[in-house]
């Protein structure tokens, strides 16, 4: 009976969790937004935006500062790291991170996420351009905020 107790507790707690319980992961500040068309990169001027990322372990939910109800959801398909090549080097590093994707309204969006940055690449279905949005992490200012994924620092650039 004692051996069954942990199993029973986990079943009771597991059934009380809902599939849409998203936990905060981190917040990011938009650093660049560009459009790529025919090999030509065009910066798109945009005001600084804070993105909040939450996860349920299967999906990522991205919302903007001040508009938590409107969000985009991405399905995680890789969680074993992200490849990165440092500028001026030929070596390819694997850093901790996840990759996710979203298909909405004929637009395929790919997301790369680490604790330091968030990159969303959008590929419209009937267009010859690609947009790349890059945001840098906003570091929490207290250990409790870091543990809970809550942003307590200023969102001003």
Fold and architecture overview:
With 157 residues, the protein is mainly beta. It has a single domain, classed as Lipocalin, CATH 2.40.128. It has 2 helices and 11 strands. Strand 9 (107-113) and strand 10 form a beta hairpin. The protein is globular.
Spell out the blueprint of helices and strands.
Layout: H1 4-16, E1 23-37, E2 40-43, E3 50-55, E4 59-64, E5 67-78, E6 82-85, E7 92-95, E8 98-104, E9 107-113, E10 117-124, E11 129-138, H2 143-148
Antiparallel strand pairs: 1-2, 1-3, 1-11, 3-4, 4-5, 5-8, 6-7, 8-9, 9-10, 10-11
DSSP E strands, number: 11
The total domain count is 1
> How would a crystallographer describe the biggest sheet?
8 strands, antiparallel, barrel
Choose one word for the global shape: globular
Give the DSSP E fraction (strand runs of 2 or more residues): over 45%
What's the CATH first level?
Mainly Beta
CATH topology: Lipocalin
Helical residue percent?
10-25%
Tell me the Rg in angstroms.
Answer: 19 Å
Could you say which structural class the secondary elements and strand pairing correspond to?
Answer: mainly beta
Rounded mean pLDDT is 79
Tally of alpha and pi helices: 2
* CATH architecture descriptor: Beta Barrel
Termini separation comes to 57 Å
